[in-house]
Amino acid sequence: MTITVLLPLGLLAVGVVVGPWLGIIADRAVERLPPKPTHRCTSCRRALGPSTLRPVLGWFDRCTGCGLHKGVRYPMIDLATGMVFAMLGLRFGMGWMLLPYLGLAAVLIVLSAIDVETHLLPNIIVWPAFFASLFLILVISGQRDYAEGIYSALLGAAVFTGFIGAAHVVNEQGMGRGDVKLSMTLGLFLGWLQPDLIDTTRLVLATIIVALVGGGVTGLVYNLAKSRGRAEIPFGPALAAATLAAVLVSGSVLDTVSL
Ligand SMILES: [Zn+2]
Predict the structure, then answer these.
(1) Which one of 3, 117, 227, 235 is most buried, by most CB atoms within 10 A?
(2) How many of the other CB atoms lie within 10 Å of CB of 147?
(3) Centre of ligand 1 from the C-alpha of residue 42, in Å
(4) Residues 146, 192: contact at Cβ < 8 Å?
């Protein structure tokens, strides 16, 4: 088997193993709890044993307090992380650019899990993610045209934040401040793939349209399935999923930095 097959398979395994830890970060960031390597029951909040750290399978354990499973979001995070990591491996191959995009995927999965539950994108994750992304892009861009890499990433951040910021001004309820802050990081990663302003704007616009349509359809289906009441659907997960899809299917990576 070649590296093109082994890399995605390896990343699938890595993602599934990383998943439980992302679940813990999402869980503890919501309530600003100190870091501790334990899952908690989503029903009664009791701390669960280390066996729940087994990827996916840990979900089948039952809480000793209330007898329920620990919450379906945990195995979903494990599976989503494995699948996204594998797809990014296929997209970028073995190279330095793979690393920051794996980091982006991990952060987006954590933020999506938090946003679904609380309708918030906490600063404690959004800001460190932005500065860590900027740092990685600065360092890795040094492997190719330094100025072009940084310029295109910052341009992407400005374009993405411009559109989402304008939407926030027009409709504060639908597009929260957290979405505006998150779009800075998303724009960095989309802009880094496209050094041209027109291509960047096109990619960002396509991403936002996909997020709006995807988020809208999901909200509609969810509310139709609900027997009563109407739930607000957070926009963060739709933005995150659309950005990851744009990264996976956008045009050539241009000069992918190879090892
Ligand atoms: Zn419980």
Answers:
(1) 235
(2) 8
(3) 7
(4) no
pTM value is: 0.89
- The pLDDT assigned to 258 comes to 40
Which residues, in sequence order, are CB contacts of 60 under 8 Å at separation 6+? 69
46/42 Cα distance (integer angstroms): 8
Q: At what angle do helices 197-225 and 236-249 cross, to 10 degrees?
A: 130
**Centre of ligand 1 from the C-alpha of residue 63, in Å:** 5
- Supply 65's token pair: 């307090």
Contact 130, 121 (CB under 8 A): no
**C-alpha–C-alpha distance, residues 143 and 226, integer Å:** 51
- Asked if 98 and 92 touch (Cβ cutoff 8 Å), the reply is yes
218-245 residue pLDDT tens: 888 888 877 666 777 788 999 999 999 9
Distance (angstroms) between ligand 1 centre and the Cα of 80 equals 24
Query: For residue 27, how far is its CA from the centre of ligand 1 (angstroms)?
Result: 14
| CA of 48 relative to ligand 1 center, distance in Å | 9
The pLDDT assigned to 74 comes to 86
184/127 Cα distance (integer angstroms): 10
Residue 112 backbone class (left: φ over 0; alpha: ψ -120 to 50; beta: rest): alpha
CB of 63 within 8 A of CB of 50? no
- Widest CA span in the chain: 57
Residue 254 has a pLDDT of 41
What stretches in the chain show pLDDT beneath 50? 253-259
**Which residue from 134, 188, 127 is spatially nearest to 161, judged by alpha carbons?**
188
